[in-house]
Protein backbone atom coordinates (compact mmCIF):
# COMPACT_ATOMS: atom_id res chain seq x y z
CA UNK A 1 0.00 0.00 0.00
CA UNK A 2 2.88 2.36 0.82
CA UNK A 3 4.39 1.74 -2.65
CA UNK A 4 1.07 2.54 -4.34
CA UNK A 5 0.68 5.78 -2.41
CA UNK A 6 4.28 6.76 -3.16
CA UNK A 7 3.83 5.97 -6.86
CA UNK A 8 0.62 7.99 -6.97
CA UNK A 9 2.39 10.95 -5.38
CA UNK A 10 5.23 10.69 -7.91
CA UNK A 11 2.78 10.55 -10.79
CA UNK A 12 0.89 13.56 -9.44
CA UNK A 13 4.13 15.54 -9.14
CA UNK A 14 5.08 14.59 -12.69
CA UNK A 15 1.78 15.74 -14.19
CA UNK A 16 3.04 19.30 -14.10
CA UNK A 17 6.31 18.36 -15.82
CA UNK A 18 6.75 18.37 -19.59
CA UNK A 19 9.65 18.24 -21.98
CA UNK A 20 10.79 21.43 -23.69
CA UNK A 21 11.89 22.01 -27.23
CA UNK A 22 15.01 23.90 -28.19
CA UNK A 23 12.68 25.92 -30.41
CA UNK A 24 10.72 27.28 -27.46
CA UNK A 25 11.41 28.24 -23.89
CA UNK A 26 7.80 28.09 -22.68
CA UNK A 27 6.63 24.85 -21.07
CA UNK A 28 4.21 22.83 -23.16
CA UNK A 29 0.81 21.99 -21.72
CA UNK A 30 0.28 18.28 -21.47
CA UNK A 31 -2.94 16.46 -22.21
CA UNK A 32 -5.24 16.27 -19.19
CA UNK A 33 -4.70 13.16 -17.15
CA UNK A 34 -7.74 12.01 -15.20
CA UNK A 35 -6.36 8.94 -13.51
CA UNK A 36 -3.26 7.82 -11.67
CA UNK A 37 -4.23 4.16 -12.09
CA UNK A 38 -1.55 2.22 -13.92
CA UNK A 39 -2.17 0.25 -17.10
CA UNK A 40 -0.42 -2.97 -16.16
CA UNK A 41 -1.03 -4.67 -19.54
CA UNK A 42 0.66 -1.79 -21.43
CA UNK A 43 3.56 -1.89 -18.99
CA UNK A 44 4.01 -5.65 -19.46
CA UNK A 45 4.09 -5.17 -23.27
CA UNK A 46 6.81 -2.53 -22.87
CA UNK A 47 9.08 -4.58 -20.60
CA UNK A 48 12.33 -5.67 -22.15
CA UNK A 49 15.04 -4.20 -24.36
CA UNK A 50 14.13 -1.64 -27.03
CA UNK A 51 15.84 0.60 -29.57
CA UNK A 52 14.58 3.89 -30.96
CA UNK A 53 14.67 3.37 -34.74
CA UNK A 54 13.37 6.80 -35.78
CA UNK A 55 12.41 10.21 -34.44
CA UNK A 56 9.99 12.15 -36.63
CA UNK A 57 8.23 15.50 -36.46
CA UNK A 58 7.01 18.15 -38.91
CA UNK A 59 9.83 20.43 -40.02
CA UNK A 60 12.58 18.08 -38.86
CA UNK A 61 14.76 19.20 -41.80
CA UNK A 62 14.68 22.80 -40.52
CA UNK A 63 14.04 22.66 -36.78
CA UNK A 64 16.24 21.06 -34.12
CA UNK A 65 14.48 19.65 -31.07
CA UNK A 66 16.30 18.91 -27.83
CA UNK A 67 14.82 15.73 -26.41
CA UNK A 68 14.54 15.36 -22.65
CA UNK A 69 17.00 18.23 -22.22
CA UNK A 70 19.80 15.80 -23.12
CA UNK A 71 20.61 16.06 -26.83
CA UNK A 72 19.22 16.74 -30.29
CA UNK A 73 16.28 14.42 -30.99
CA UNK A 74 18.14 12.78 -33.89
CA UNK A 75 20.80 11.62 -31.38
CA UNK A 76 18.17 9.32 -29.89
CA UNK A 77 18.01 7.18 -33.05
CA UNK A 78 19.85 3.99 -32.11
CA UNK A 79 19.52 4.62 -28.38
CA UNK A 80 18.76 1.57 -26.26
CA UNK A 81 16.16 1.40 -23.50
CA UNK A 82 15.62 -1.32 -20.91
CA UNK A 83 12.21 -1.36 -19.18
CA UNK A 84 11.41 -3.49 -16.12
CA UNK A 85 7.64 -3.67 -15.62
CA UNK A 86 7.40 -5.11 -12.10
CA UNK A 87 9.21 -2.17 -10.46
CA UNK A 88 8.86 0.51 -13.18
CA UNK A 89 12.60 1.06 -13.44
CA UNK A 90 15.12 0.66 -16.21
CA UNK A 91 17.83 2.51 -18.05
CA UNK A 92 18.55 4.24 -21.34
CA UNK A 93 21.77 4.88 -23.30
CA UNK A 94 22.71 7.15 -26.19
CA UNK A 95 25.72 5.99 -28.20
CA UNK A 96 25.29 7.58 -31.63
CA UNK A 97 28.51 8.85 -33.22
CA UNK A 98 28.72 12.65 -33.25
CA UNK A 99 26.32 12.94 -30.32
CA UNK A 100 26.98 13.21 -26.60
CA UNK A 101 27.33 9.84 -24.89
CA UNK A 102 24.67 9.53 -22.21
CA UNK A 103 23.45 6.74 -19.96
CA UNK A 104 21.04 6.95 -17.04
CA UNK A 105 18.67 4.97 -14.88
CA UNK A 106 14.99 5.75 -15.48
CA UNK A 107 11.70 5.36 -13.64
CA UNK A 108 8.60 5.00 -15.80
CA UNK A 109 4.93 4.04 -15.84
CA UNK A 110 1.89 4.04 -18.13
CA UNK A 111 -1.48 5.14 -16.77
CA UNK A 112 -4.96 4.06 -17.91
CA UNK A 113 -5.20 7.06 -20.28
CA UNK A 114 -2.09 5.91 -22.18
CA UNK A 115 0.19 8.56 -20.70
CA UNK A 116 3.79 7.42 -20.34
CA UNK A 117 5.45 9.04 -17.30
CA UNK A 118 9.26 9.17 -17.48
CA UNK A 119 11.83 10.33 -14.93
CA UNK A 120 15.51 10.35 -15.83
CA UNK A 121 17.48 9.69 -12.66
CA UNK A 122 21.13 10.60 -12.19
CA UNK A 123 23.36 7.80 -10.95
CA UNK A 124 23.43 7.65 -7.16
CA UNK A 125 20.24 9.72 -6.78
CA UNK A 126 17.06 8.21 -5.39
CA UNK A 127 14.18 8.50 -7.84
CA UNK A 128 11.82 9.82 -5.16
CA UNK A 129 13.99 12.94 -4.88
CA UNK A 130 13.71 13.68 -8.63
CA UNK A 131 10.89 16.20 -9.05
CA UNK A 132 10.95 16.66 -12.82
CA UNK A 133 9.93 14.30 -15.56
CA UNK A 134 8.21 13.97 -18.91
CA UNK A 135 4.73 13.02 -20.07
CA UNK A 136 4.36 11.33 -23.45
CA UNK A 137 1.53 9.42 -25.14
CA UNK A 138 1.85 5.72 -25.91
CA UNK A 139 0.62 4.83 -29.42
CA UNK A 140 0.55 1.90 -31.85
CA UNK A 141 1.67 -0.59 -29.22
CA UNK A 142 2.36 -4.18 -30.35
CA UNK A 143 4.55 -6.96 -28.97
CA UNK A 144 7.50 -5.79 -31.10
CA UNK A 145 7.02 -2.02 -31.42
CA UNK A 146 5.44 1.06 -29.92
CA UNK A 147 5.61 4.82 -30.18
CA UNK A 148 6.07 7.53 -27.59
CA UNK A 149 4.69 10.87 -28.73
CA UNK A 150 5.77 14.17 -27.21
CA UNK A 151 3.85 17.36 -27.90
CA UNK A 152 6.08 20.43 -28.25
CA UNK A 153 5.49 24.11 -28.99
CA UNK A 154 7.25 25.44 -32.08
CA UNK A 155 6.56 29.06 -32.97
CA UNK A 156 3.26 29.04 -31.10
CA UNK A 157 2.04 25.82 -32.74
CA UNK A 158 1.88 22.40 -31.12
CA UNK A 159 3.75 19.67 -33.00
CA UNK A 160 4.14 15.97 -32.24
CA UNK A 161 7.58 14.38 -31.93
CA UNK A 162 7.26 10.61 -32.45
CA UNK A 163 9.85 8.20 -31.05
CA UNK A 164 9.55 4.79 -32.76
CA UNK A 165 10.65 1.90 -30.53
CA UNK A 166 11.45 -1.59 -31.85
CA UNK A 167 12.02 -4.63 -29.62
CA UNK A 168 15.66 -5.78 -29.56
CA UNK A 169 15.10 -9.26 -28.13
CA UNK A 170 12.53 -11.20 -26.18
CA UNK A 171 14.46 -12.20 -23.06
CA UNK A 172 12.54 -12.46 -19.82
CA UNK A 173 12.90 -9.58 -17.33
Could you characterize what this model shows?
The chain is 12% helix and 38% strand. By secondary structure, it is mostly beta strands. It has one domain (2-167): Lipocalin (Beta Barrel), CATH 2.40.128. The protein has an 8-stranded antiparallel β-barrel with strand order 1-4-5-6-7-8-9-10. Strand 4 and strand 5 form a beta hairpin. The chain starts with a helix and ends in a 6-residue tail after the last strand. Mean pLDDT is 77; it is low at 1-34.
What are the SSEs and their pairings?
Blueprint: H1 2-14, H2 40-46, E1 48-56, E2 66-67, E3 71-72, E4 80-84, E5 89-94, E6 102-110, E7 115-120, E8 134-139, E9 145-154, E10 157-167
Antiparallel strand pairs: 1-4, 1-10, 2-3, 4-5, 5-6, 6-7, 7-8, 8-9, 9-10
Determine the N-to-C terminus distance. 24 Å
Largest sheet: 8 strands, antiparallel, barrel
- Give me the CATH architecture, please: Beta Barrel
How many structural domains does the protein architecture include?
A: 1
Brief digest:
This is Lipocalin-like domain-containing protein. With 173 residues, this protein is mainly β. 12% of the residues lie in helices and 38% in strands.
Key terms:
173 residues; mainly beta; Lipocalin; eight-stranded antiparallel β-barrel; 2 helices; globular; signal
Amino acid sequence: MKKIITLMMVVLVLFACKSKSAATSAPVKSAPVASTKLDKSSQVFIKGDWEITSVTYPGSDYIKVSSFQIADSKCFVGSTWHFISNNNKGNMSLTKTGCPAFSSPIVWSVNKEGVFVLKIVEAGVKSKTVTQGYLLRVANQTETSFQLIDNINVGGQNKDVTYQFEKINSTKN
